[in-house]
Amino acid sequence: MDKEKIEELKIQMHKRLNEAQEFIQQVPPIQLYAAIGVVLFTTFLFTIIRLFKRKSANTVVLTGLSGSGKTVLFYQLRDGSPHQGTVTSMEPNEGTFVLHSETTKKGKVKPVHLVDFPGHSRLRTKLDDFLPQAAAIIFVVDAVEFLPNCRAASEFLYDILTKANVVKKKIPLLLLCNKVDKITAHTKDFIRKQLEKEIEKLRASRTALSSADIANEYTLGIPGEAFAFSQCHNKVTIAEASGLTGDISQLEQFIREHVKP
Amino acid sequence: MLEQLLIFTRGGLILWTCKEIGNALRGSPIDTLIRSCLLEERSGAASYNYDAPGASYTLKWTFHNELGLVFVAVYQRILHLLYVDDLLAMVKREFSEIYDPKRTSYSDFDDIFQQLKKEAEARAEEMKKSKQVGKPVNNNLVKKQGQVMKGSMDGSNKKNSGGDSENGGGDGENLKGHLLENGNFNKNHVINRELPRMVNSNGKENGSSNVGAFDVNKLQKIRGKGGKKTDATVNKGSKVEPKKKVVKKNRVWDDSPIEPKLDFTDPVSENGEENIAIVAADQGESMMDKEEIMSSESESEEEDIGKNGKVETKKKGWFSSMFQSIAGKSNLEKADLKPALKALKDRLMTKNVAEEIAEKLCESVAASLEGKKLASFTRISSTVQAAMEEALVRILTPRRSIDILRDVHAAQEQGKPYVAVFVGVNGVGKSTNLAKVAYWLQQHKIKVMMAACDTFRSGAVEQLRTHARRLQIPIFEKGYEKDPAIVAKEAIQEASRNGSDVVLVDTAGRMQDNEPLMRALSKLIYVNSPDLILFVGEALVGNDAVDQLSKFNQKLADLSPSPNPRLIDGILLTKFDTIDDKVGAALSMVYISGAPVMFVGCGQSYTDLKKLNVKSIVKTLLK
Q: Which spans are transmembrane here (chain A) (predicted)?
């Protein structure tokens, strides 16, 4: 029985093959090539789109003022140690990796594409290259040396929060107060309040300037009300971390929330 | 001695530091070096001086661009260490052999470094000796050669055996044996590279690797001798300079009756009454607040690149250049970059960038490109162009916020007036642009007051008063021949009395070399400690921009009585509408002072005040 069926199938297949061959021979070769080309091209396109999508879905940008500890956090996330210390970065650090704390986990863990962007203000224009692909932004603030840098930090933060990319895509932002292991560090509530106050002032002066400033396409908050981070279009959360001692559980949690494993 | 030697990536991770030296550095010289030198396109310079309380360091650095590594050596400034350059070069070579992007600790490099250091020190010592004796010393040849080979042997072995440092060959004989036995290509290569250099350095004084260090030594001696002499004469000269006050006398013309008084600055003048009735000038929105529409001009750019490329390809064969452009050239060398950089420098100079600055920029770009791999399908000229564009954008992007309104609001909260002083050389348009700024501030509902502190040039006060009347702004004036510092002080007091938010202080124009006037200016700044010192400069200026700004800054620093003097905070570029595409002055001024361009004056009316558009400037410069 089985053999007969297989034989039948074989014969049918042969017939089909012959038919197909005849059909192909009837079609002019140029059309054939064109068809093959179209098929190849579309698959190519699809793969490229897929690649890009994957990249855009899991990029996390670490940013903040110079000296707030971004590079240390980057290496803490990647290798679990700050190595021998860091100096001011001149170029972004980039890496796609599984977070260090998750390397021991079983099962498939999706790697994160992390970008540590230097804080020096001369390099700030390049941040626009990374923001369109970002799934989440981490704004690192130095909790110890906060007050002297408060204005500069809030200006930088204001710039990020009003970027068209950030507002449109509602990229979530984490305010990370770094260096909380030090005794003199400010609490995160204090930092949040100070930043809100500063941004409130900035809003007043920037809206006066807004028509001149092409960079800020969006205004922050609700007119007539004091600014609070809850008014932002995108979700702004606040957390604490310590890059040197490696206490970065809140940061890892945030990354995992937005880069789904 | 050497204080510290660091190896770190451009991303900022320290890969290796010298543990034996291990002195804690005072302050943070490395961070300061990166922030104020390497990121400001000054990496073409030879060294950087860092001053911290209790220490003064000199830093030297070198890049490995292909691997993205930076090597920095720190030493006390009083010691003129001759071997640092040499040592850095050797460390760079050895370290790049064992470097692996995945590795982050290189504890095994300690031994190699010790070796290299000893060797470099010995060579410097020898150089000194040979200088003293006056003829080359050759008897150390064998010994030193052995050392070098050992060093290089260590390096190559480590690479092969994955960091096992005990494998290194002991001396010359041992090395030879190894070589014969293994016939290892890698080692052979290292040694071959090493040998000719050693022969050179010991053979004669003019050995190629030696020349730099030798010259430095010689120069320093000469400087030591000559420097004292010149110092003495300079001191003498400055002492002799008389300190007399310029007193204005009434000039008597031949055929005119003698006027009793030249000072017409009484508050009420003849035609003053009627003019006050003029309605406040309102000419619409200041251009500061208008958006600018950028037109893309990339087509012409590309054409230009094309031309440059053609010139280059003519030299080499068509096929080889084609092949190179597809495969990507292995590593860029200085010689490859030279023609492209030369063309770029010329182009910058035709755009009125000061020569000195164009030169420095090109050096810095060369330093950042040397050793890099050329990507496929690119030409050297376009690579250089892209690097230069990046550098220019970086320079022109302000380091700090230039939001004056924000600062004014901050000052408002503290309940004191915001003081801005306008300084500059003669006839650049200080008063005119002061009026424009006043107009712009007024439009944003800020109470402005002018202070006429040009008590030197006749007519200056009247000029400012006319502006004040048209804009209906209060003006503080005390006539001529008063000390401008006192006038400004009184003006600020007056402003806080009548509740003005901003005081704009107009000063007399002065040449940067005029010491009495510069002293007066630094006194004015010291007495009043303004919130903003705005340097007003013409966009027409060429090479003189460097001199003006550097001298102004220097004089403000030198002549100030306070220990930490104020320098120029911002630049106002005037006459920008007259220069067409020669926008180089903007670049020169920003590069020299490090201060951002805050305003650009671009016309005759009050509304003609703009912000600098960095992108369009860069585009114009590279066109």
A: 30-52
How many C-beta neighbours within 10 Å does residue B336 have? 18
A213: which DSSP letter?
A: -
Q: How far is Cα A114 from Cα A97, in angstroms, rounded to an integer?
A: 8
Span B11-39, average pLDDT:
78
Q: DSSP E strands: which ranges in B397-511?
A: 418-423, 448-453, 475-476, 502-507
Tell me the pLDDT tens digit for each residue of B353-406: 999 899 999 988 888 888 777 777 778 888 888 889 988 988 888 877 778 888
Q: Which residues of B touch A211 (CB under 8 A)?
A: 289-291
Q: Which residue of B has its CA nearest to A117?
A: B11
- The verdict on a CB contact (< 8 Å) between A83 and B8 is no
**Record: contact A66-B35, CB cut-off 8 A:** yes
B222's tokens: 């000469």
Is B4 within 8 Å of B18 (Cβ atoms)? yes
Strand order in the sheet with B448-453: B475-476, B448-453, B502-507, B418-423, B532-538, B570-574, B597-601, B609-610
Nearest alpha-carbon partner for B393 in A166, A160, A129, A212? A129
Q: Which of A122, A145, A207, A213 to mutate to test the interface with B (most CBs of B within 10 A)?
A: A122
Split at pLDDT 50, 70, 90, the class of B134 is: low
Rounded (10°) CA dihedral B353, B354, B355, B356: -130
Q: How far is CA B538 from the centre of its chain?
A: 20
Ordered DSSP codes for A167-212 = HHHT--EEEEEE-TTSTTPPPHHHHHHHHHHHHHHHHHHHHHHTTT
